From TrEMBL:
Pfam families: DUF1389
UniProt cross-references to InterPro entries, sorted A to Z: DUF1389 (IPR010792)
Name assigned to this protein: Uncharacterized protein
Source organism of this protein record: Chlamydia pecorum (strain ATCC VR-628 / DSM 29919 / E58) (Chlamydophila pecorum)
TM region positions: 24-45, 51-72
Swiss-Prot/TrEMBL keywords: Membrane, Transmembrane, Transmembrane helix
Domain of life: Bacteria
Length: 433
């Protein structure tokens, strides 16, 4: 028992960076546990049975109870370390010294962000150590322990990539979270949609509100259209979007028709390129003629996407994971998989860095890791483990994330059936005004 206590406590001290006062208090509690455990052993050895078993057992149970009360809160407070898949991408992008700092000192995502900011500021001041006072005490201690000179020398003369574009490029769920957070909450309120459903709204309202046959946001045509549309014309279209979910524009509005006609001409050379590029991935490729371009744009304008949100879609296409998102979103018995999966993650705080429920293992997943999770759910062993059919794409993905990556998500779905959660999402979005 004393060995396990030693391992647990040393792990907490290493990862949690407790203050001196808290450390002394924790050590005192652990010392009490060890003393009780030793007393239990002595009771079993020295006293006659059955008294020895009664006394020893009672002391043993007391020791375990105190241990649980002492260590469990500290374990919960332990920082959430960065997942290895994400760290591997960091290693291939940033200098080795940055990777080593993250791994050896168990930096969190917010600490990683602060380190990159302070290293950028060091270029102006030339003195990293003088800037440590502006950091949280816990992070400053980590950098001092790692070695200020070591860090300075390791990044000298290197242009460090800012963290935000790095996260958007390599972490698809982080990018979707960013798109959701960019959404105007006033639009949700005006539609009678609770803000807690914002993830579902921004990733699925375009499809759910207009009938099950619509692709919604995850449509291969969206980035191709947005690449050719300028902001001025987009603003005009938003102003003329009907308040109805109908996919038609006012046919008498010449400005709208001119913009759509101009786009249709520009898109003529894009059609075959889009189709051939994604046919092997099983992605549905639809026409880019004038009528369909008008429908896609009306759908996006009716939902209320901002120009900035749709530029993120263009970026996702540039980064190479938009086609797979479109493929995944359309799978299964009803599609809208990303709307339901990411909508739930957003609602439960799994993707919110400020939430206690935030799970870096999910937020910072790479595309390969997301594909692996999908493939596991499609395998006989995976779907069998979850007790589902392979066609239940949404449920299998959520089960994978909950079982292997996020205890917080596991707790959330344990109390309510995933199918019920999906039905709730559908009902909420179907009632949008």
């Amino acid at each position: 028992m004393s060995v396990s206590i030693n391992i647990a406590s040393s792990s907490i001290f290493k990862n949690n960076d407790l203050s001196r006062k808290n450390s002394c208090l924790l050590l005192a509690k652990i010392a009490v546990v060890v003393a009780i455990a030793l007393a239990a052993i002595l009771a079993v050895v020295c006293l006659m049975s059955p008294i020895s078993y009664i006394v020893g057992g009672t002391l043993g149970i007391a020791a375990l109870a105190i241990l649980a009360v002492t260590l469990v809160p500290e374990i919960k407070r332990a920082p959430k370390n960065l997942p290895q898949g994400f760290l591997n991408v960091v290693k291939s992008t940033y200098p080795d010294v940055v990777y080593n700092l993250l791994v050896k000192e168990h930096l969190t995502l917010s600490e990683f962000r602060a380190v990159l900011n302070i290293l950028e500021n060091t270029k102006k001041s030339g003195d990293l150590e003088s800037l440590l006072s502006g950091l949280p005490e816990r992070l400053a201690r980590k950098i001092l322990r790692f070695g200020v000179k070591n860090l300075e020398q390791g990044v000298q003369g290197v242009e460090l990539q800012p963290l935000e574009p790095f996260l958007r490029k390599h972490c698809p769920f982080y990018m979707l979270k960013t798109l959701i957070n960019m959404g105007d909450e006033n639009i949700l309120r005006s539609r009678g949609c609770d803000v807690k459903y914002r993830g579902c709204y921004w990733l699925g309202a375009a499809a759910l509100c207009g009938g099950d046959n619509l692709l919604g946001l995850f449509d291969l045509r969206v980035p191709n259209i947005m690449k050719l549309l300028d902001k001025k014309d987009f603003d005009v279209l938003k102003q003329h979007a009907s308040s109805s979910v109908s996919l038609s524009w006012n046919s008498q509005d010449k400005n709208v028709q001119e913009i759509i006609s101009k786009l249709a001409d520009k898109c003529k050379g894009v059609q075959l390129q889009v189709t051939s590029k994604n046919a092997s991935q099983g992605v549905q490729c639809l026409p880019l003629d004038k009528e369909d371009i008008g429908k896609v744009l009306h759908r996006l304008c009716w939902v209320g996407y901002s120009w900035e949100q749709l530029q993120l879609v263009v970026d996702m296409d540039k980064f190479g994971y938009w086609p797979w998102f479109c493929f995944f979103d359309g799978l299964g018995r009803m599609g809208k998989n990303l709307c339901f999966v990411v909508g739930l993650l957003c609602m439960e705080g799994i993707l919110d860095e400020t939430s206690a429920a935030c799970s870096p293992e999910v937020l910072l997943m790479t595309l390969d890791e997301i594909k692996k999770a999908y493939a596991y759910g499609q395998s006989s062993s995976g779907s069998g483990k979850f007790g589902r059919q392979t066609s239940q794409v949404t449920e299998n993905m959520i089960d994978y994330l909950a079982m292997f990556l996020s205890p917080y998500l596991r707790k959330a779905v344990k109390s309510k059936d995933i199918s019920q959660i999906i039905d709730d999402f559908i009902q909420k979005l179907s009632n949008i005004e």
